[in-house]
Each structure stands twice: as C-alpha cells, then as structure tokens.
Input
Amino acid sequence: MRAQAPAAPGPALSFTLNGRNLSSADGSIGAPTMRLLDLLRLHAGQTGTKEGCGEGECGACAVLVDGELVNSCLVPVGQLHGCNVTSIEGLPRDDPLLSAFARAGAAQCGICTPGMVLAARALLERSAQPSLDEVREGLAGNLCRCTGYARIYTAVLDAAAAGASPGTQAGGAPGLPE
Amino acid sequence: MKVPDDAMAAVAVAATAAAAAPRLGLLGAAVARKDAPAKILGQARYVDDLVRPGMLHGATVRTRCAGGTLERIEFGPGIDWDAFVVVSAADVPGINATQMIEQDQPVLADRCFRHAGEPVLLLAHPDRDLLRAAVEAVTLHEWPEPSPVFSIDDALAQRGQVCPGNVYRDYLMQRGDIAAGEAAAEVVFEGRFETGAQEHVYIEPQGMIAHVDAAGVLVVEGSMQCPYYVLGTLTAVTGRDAGRVRVVHCTTGGGFGGKEEYPSHIAAHAALLSLKAGGRPVKLVYDRSEDMLATPKRHPSRTLVRIGARRDGRLCFMDIDFALDGGAYTTLSPVVLSRGVIHAPGPYACANARVRGRAVATHHPPNGAFRGFGAPQSIFAIEQAMDGLARALGLSPLELRRVNMLRPGDRSVAGQPIDHTTDFDAVLDQALRESGYVAKREAFAASNARNAASGDPLRHGIGLATFHHGAGFTGNGEVVLASEARVRADVDGRVEVVASSSEMGQGNTTTLCQVVAEALGLPLDRVSQAPVDTFDVPDSGPTVASRTCMVVGLIVEQAARRLRAELIEKAGLPASGADEHAFAAACARYLDGHPRLEAQARYEPPANVQWDETVFQGSPYASYAWAAYVAEVEVDLTTCEVALSGFTAVQEVGKVVNPVIAAGQVEGGVVQGIGFALFEKVSWGGNGAMANNRLTNYIIPTSADIPPVRVFFQEQPGGIGPAGAKGLGELPMDGPGPAILSAVNSALGSRIASLPVLPEDVMAAAAGVAS
Output
C-alpha cells in the first residue's frame, strides 16, 4: 500500500466520487500529488478502473470528470477540487451501454471495458446519435487488444438507438443479464 | 478428488447405452457471454485488484548488457536494506530453471547471463515508493559479452556465440524429389522474406501474488494461460511436491500466447519472495514498460523461398529455408518452429517440396508463443512467393492459387490426406464475391495509372491470402498431453465444468458450458465453469493452440454424457424428456447414496492422426480451418500512409459453437494481424532489448485505424470438436500480413518483402519504383 502522506496545509481539497463527497479535511483524500487512479484503486477500493500503461496511452484507467473523459493515471487529485468524478462503479445500472456491451459481445478479456464504456458514455453525451465514424473517433483513445473494436461499435450504436441517457427512457433500459 | 477407476469404467460402459439428451440447439447459439456482466461493471477481479493482508510488493532487478557475466551486486547507500526482503539465485531451494522444453533458462541469473533484462535480484517491501528507490539503488556489475549476436544471419554464420552452434532445433520436412521438380519447372521464383518481432500488448500487464497459507501450502494466484505449466515450474524451483503448491487463475486480461510461458517466471519470483518473507503475501505486478522489456515477443523470421511451376501454373517444387530468432533461451521455440515448418508450404499441393526450419539463438530476450505460433511467419513468406511466382508466370495471384490449392484426394507436404469434407473452392469463391476482388483489381490498376498520369498521390491496391491453420497441439502433442477434464453436479442439479482451461477473453467459460449444457439437455444457466485452481481442476492441458473449444470441448462433452448415463443408470433420470427439474431430482437421489456426482474423460486422438516426428511426415493436426482473406488499401504518396479501406475474412471452421464469440475471435485476430502488417515495430536497443517498450512509441491499432472488418463463416463438417467444431483462435492471425502487403505492393507496383510496412518503407519503395 502506498504511504499515505499527510494532508497538505491550506484550504481543504474536496470533490465528489460517484456521488460520495471526499475531502482532505477528513482524510479521504491524501496527498494532492496522488494520481486519481491510485486514489480510486488503492484508497477508495474502486478497482473497476484499471492501469494498463500509466502514461495516458491506453485508456484502461479512463473516468469521467464533470462528464469529460480523462485518463486517471495522468490526473493528480489536487486538480479535482469541486469536480464530479464518475468511475464505472458510479455509472447508473440502467445505462443502456451496459446491456448493449453484453448483448453485442463487446467485452472479451474485459480489462479495457470499464474505460471503454465510459468513453462511449462521454461520446453519447456529446452526440446522442453518433455515426460509425464518430464512434471510431470517439473511442480512439481507448485501446482494446481482443475485439478488433467491431463489437464495441455495435454496442455503442445499439445503446444510442435504445435511448440517450440512463433513466430517461420509458420503462428503463434492459438490465444486464445475470 | 479423483474418481476411482472402476467407477469410471462403469460410467463409460453406461455412456454407450444411454440415449442422447434432448437437443436444445445450444451449439451454434449466440448466447451472451457468462463473464460479460462482471467485466462490464468493473467487478471482475484481476490480479492487481487483489489485496492480501500484510501484503508486500515485489520488484525485479535486471541485467542491462546483452549477455555476459555478473561480477558483483552492489547495494547502494541511503536504503535501509534490512527492511527489504532480498532474493538472489542463492535463495532458490530447488532447480533454478523454468520447466519448459529445455531447462536452460534460469529463474534468476547467477553468474552467466545471456540477455539484457534478465532477472537477477528480487526485492520486496510494503511501500511501493521505497521499493522503486531500492531498485534504483542496486548496481549490477556486469562484464559484457564482447560480441553479441542480434540477427538470424549472424547467428547462423556464427559471428558470435550464444550457445554451441547457435541453433536450438533444425527440422527437415520433405516430400518427393526436389531435383526432379526443378528440372520440370518452366518458371522459377526466388525471394527472401522477413517479419519483425511483435509484442502481445494484452492490456492487463502480467502479475502474480504468492503466499503460504495456514496449512503450509504455497498459493500463487495471477494472470496466466496455463496453470499447470506454472505449477510445474513452482514445484521444481521450490522443491515442494504438487500437494504443497497451489496455482489459482485470476481473471486474465488478455493473453494471445504472451501468458503461456512467462507467468511461470513471475510466479516463481513471487513465490521465492514470499517463502523468504516467511509466507507473507507478495504481489509482483509489472508495469507496462517492464512487461514489454522482459516478456517474450513473436519470433522475428527470415524465409528463403524458391518455387517453380510449369507455364500453366502447376507447382513443380518448393524449396523453403525458414528461420526464427528464438532469442537467448530455448523456451517454446522448438514447437513454434515445427508449426511454422508444417505451415510453410501453405494450402497448396506440391509433389516435390523441402522445408528446412531452424530456430536460432541470439542475445535478444527470448521470444515465445504468440497467436499463430510460427505459422503467420511462414505463411507470410509462401503467400508472398506465390504472388511473385504469379507475376513471373503472367498469371493473377488468384489463378495461381486456384490451380494449386489442396483438394480432396491430395496430400499435404506433411503427408496428410485431404479428406472429402474440405471444399476450399467454396471458401475462396465467397471471399471473391464478398470483396469484389476481381473487378476491384482491374479497376485499381486503371485508376492507379490515371492517378500517376495526372499527379494524383492516391493509389489503391487489393491483396488476397489463402491459408489453413491446424488446430490443437502439433504432431503427437495431444497424445502426450492426454488432457483430462471433469463434469460434476450438486444436489440442486447445478453443473460445473471442471478443467484447467483458462478464460483470458476468448470465451471458454461460455462455450465449454454450451457444450456441456447441450450434452445434458439443460438450460445454459444451470452450467458454469468451476474456478481454475490446481487443487480442484485436473490438467486439461494448456490454454493455447486453438485447442480449447475443439479438444477440451470434446472432453467435457464426453464427461457430460458419462454423467448423464450414470444418472440414468443409478438415479432414475428418464432417458428421454427429462428437464432441469427431473435432472435436479436425479442428482439429489444420486447424492443421497454417493459422496459426489462427477464424471471424467480423457482426450483420445482420432485413430487416423499419426505423426512421425523424426521424419516430419504424417498427419500433424486432427483438424484444419481454411480461410481466404482480402485486404484493400489506399496509399497516399504525399504522406506515405497506408490506410486500410476494406477487409474481408471468409473462413471454414466446422461447427460455429457461438457465432458472436467466434466472430469476436476473428475480428480481434484480424486486427492484431493488421497491427503486425502496418503498425507494430519492435525497435531493438544497442543491448538487444526492446527500446520502444511503451505504448507511446509501440503503436497498436486504435478504433480510428480500423474500418469494419467483414467476417463470414462457412460450416463444413469434419472438425473433431463438439458437433464438428474446429479450432479457430489463431487462424485470423495468419492472413492479414500477406493480404495487406500484397495490396500495398499492387498499389505501388513495389516489391516490399518484409513486415511491418511503415510509412518510411512506403517512401523507400515508392522512390525505388519511380527510379
């Protein structure tokens, strides 16, 4: 476990992670230089965010910060004051992307999948009915080595067709098969 | 957990008498993957997600020189070394070598070493930052190898020595009379073809956690394809018997062959640290750059091909000299080589052929298994040579292939008869139809001429590759493995597939369950695969070689039938019309009088599959999948970029057990092949290790690079797997390289003969054509 540095003096740093308030005042945020990825995985126990390269190339650690896709391995938590951070654990269970990924066979080994789902969510927020080329462009920061991407395109386009954002469609999105 | 032999015999007898379960149509159904929800929600637990109480982190100190001798290890100042667990070769209680084909590769280098990046010293500490500082504070005093060998040509010419002769294996496969074939040939083509190393880039880096449990058992859990390989190395290295070592498979984030052999090293390292730390858990997870530096790559290759034909295109002879760069230790090179040799003649009939194959030693880190396993390299060479011969003959690449493709009644160069179930023409015809190959080839030639005349920088090209890929271990490998698997049921009628086959994304936790559910007449949700743990599951062989669905699928199907027969005979399961409730009731009745309900089966190869390794003749594979791939490219002569504009992949794979999973395998394999052809170049540093060992400068295809890949299956009968399934996981790696290079060469009118093709290669080739 990474050594927990004492909180920096000065005004408290606080932000929201998946709807929960974190603050340097109560110790739930350590050193401001800590990578968001380490805060998620090592301190918050949210291991759905993965480390694939540690240098912002693969997107396995992607999360949403105020709805924008960022690689959490490149973000020191000190930059997040007042932000809303959403990792895969915080995505609503009725998000149509989740069931669309399962239906399409878009996850194989699964290590890129949480980041890929969040990249797709960020894309659908920008463009509710993206074209195939927009999907290809929108996911280009997230590497997948198993699928060849085809089934991921299908999943994103299916989710777009199923309804824009989670919780908005009548009757809700189909749940994940258990 | 073994079922007594006499009980098994009784079950086996009963199996033949039992009626087949009702058909549910699960084989061929596009059912959703069982592992999908946990993975999509981020709940699947990979090794780096696990935290064990009191866990230390481990790190590895590696050599920097390309071989040499280790004079001294210096522990620098400023570090409280007493707070660290330190392990060197002197701490290895058993055999200091991984247990592969040879035992030449130490787990920790002692005095002599053969490559940069070789592990020497292991450190562990609770704090990862202090651990990193400690690694930096260790200095290895290395006396470097004076004349390191970094190329196949230098190794064969013995300019420098890695091991005596620099050749790990030298194989010869031949048929007919080369001299007679040469005499009959009217046109001869000769060429030299090369392929580079390729890094797997599974998105989950490798890692293991080791600890000693309360019962004194060494437990190692992690990311791997082959738990029993890991167990074999752990018992040898620690000197413990298999009853005191337990290997547990974690959710594994991609493998592609890269987690076939190297996990044994990491497991041994984690285990040595934990044993020295009194059994405390030690996590050893590589970061990306260490993973890319240290772990094996696809073997670089060079192939010399001479082939000749009559004017009508009929092949008279093939003379192929195939060589792979095995790197500094043997690892799996002998078997990668044998697969490469057997696939070197391609899917063509030739009465007079000779393939010599050598795996050579260099001072690069060892190369190893990577999807396709030698076949993508040798198939690339023969496909390019066929294009060259077609040019020399004035035939189209298609015509030359059509004349020579293996057909029922022919024998392959290995001597395997081609049976009546194979209709390769049908595969080729569909690829031509779906891609529009013939019309586009003409249209591109015309538009390229127009563009050249008008100064337009765009050129278009189309390329065809035809190939087949043998599934399962090569030759007698499956006989030697004698893989075993079990199926068991509990009192509620829940069924588990019990096998060491390891999910790494390819889908076996779904497909094996489809096979068993179908055999038992149960809905799919009643069947799951048991966690892969060597204390529970038998050795169903390594998860490699496109063998899992085909070979292990066959074994678990047999075990399921035996289980059903046992229930019919001893627990009153109705022989027909039994649903899941009747099944559960029968399980409950059976378990009332028996301690467990379980059936086992072992692989028995088909009687006609015989292989003589000494002369490389016979039937090396029980089943082959056949394919024809067409690639279309657009080359911009201003930027020298090659954009893939279309890709059509038609394959015959026997029964498609799950269409979504099968298509996913092909799509993913094709894209890895596209990377091999157009993006992925391993640059070697001056010390022979990978210099661009980061995702910043080793480039794999992104979604922006990949147009929709069009995938089509044909299902001809004849596979040995469940309902006639054949292995298909590696097949799609074979075709993109040759098809794409053919397309590039046809666009440019060039003669590029190596992969990958990067813009600088296009620039040089275009300049060559212009002059």
Summary: Chain B has three domains: 5-30+483-556+572-602, 47-146+206-285, 301-473+615-770. Chain B touches chain A through 62 residues (CB under 8 Å). The domain at 301-473+615-770 of chain B is CATH 3.30.365.10 (Aldehyde Oxidoreductase; domain 4).
